[in-house]
Amino acid sequence: MLMSHNRFSSFRKWVVACLSIVVWTAAAADTTSRRNGEAAPPWVGQSVTEANLAGEGQLRFLGLRIYDARLWVAPGFQAETFEAHPLALELTYHRAFTGVDIARRSISEIERQVALTRAQAERWQQSLVSVLPDVQPGDRLTGIYQPNDGMQLWRGDQALGALADTELARLFFGIWLSPRSSEPALRNALLGHTLRPEQ
């Protein structure tokens, strides 16, 4: 009798575990479905035709949340040639930063991808300072990249400015999307299912 009870107890645990997996999988699938069906903000849709949410992630430093990030792309987007496609990167900040600090950090990250002369680094930093605002927790910045036109920057639904330097724009978005990104986990989360398995 004791053996039968133990077998029943084990069977019951197995059934509960299986049901839990099914419920968790269904919940995850439902979340993905809602995410993939989400409409892009109007200022993104104006520049990225039929924009879809490729992925999203969060940047943390020493356990502190820095910002949430989301990547919007058009149909046909390829992660390995991201610089050839229009796209939009949306950052929602959890910390306050000055535009100067963001520009300075951006140049440091760009230098992970390519060597810059001091003059070029300073010139590009000033270009970024001209469009990057100070941010407070809750502020949402969206950078829109166009391969042949450079980039536009928005805060919420307000256009902040544009940079026509296509090389700077490519390297700026490479901070998040280049294989040389300092945050590969965030890159993978943003690119979502657009990455090939070997990446």
Secondary structure category: alpha+beta
The total number of structural domains is: 2
Q: How many H/I helices?
A: 6
**Order of strands in the sheet with the most strands?**
1-2-3-4-5-6
Mind describing the biggest β-sheet?
Answer: 6 strands, antiparallel
Q: Pick out the low-confidence regions.
A: 1-35
Task: Briefly characterize the structure.
The chain is an alpha+beta fold and 199 residues long. The chain has helices at residues 2-36, 42-45, 99-110, 118-129, 166-177, 184-191, and strands spanning 52-61, 64-73, 87-93, 140-146, 150-155, 158-163.
Keywords:
globular, 199 residues, 6 strands, 2 domains, Chalcone isomerase, 23% strand
What does the model show?
The chain has 199 residues and is an alpha+beta fold. It folds into 2 domains: 37 residues; 155 residues, 3-Layer(bba) Sandwich (Chalcone isomerase). Helices cover 42% and strands 23% of the residues. It contains 6 helices and 6 strands; from the N terminus they run H-H-E-E-E-H-H-E-E-E-H-H. Strands 1-2-3-4-5-6 form a 6-stranded antiparallel sheet. Strand 4 and strand 5 form a beta hairpin. Helix 3 runs antiparallel to helix 4 and helix 3 crosses helix 5. The longest helix has 35 residues. The chain starts with a helix and ends in an 8-residue tail after the last helix. The N terminus is likely disordered.
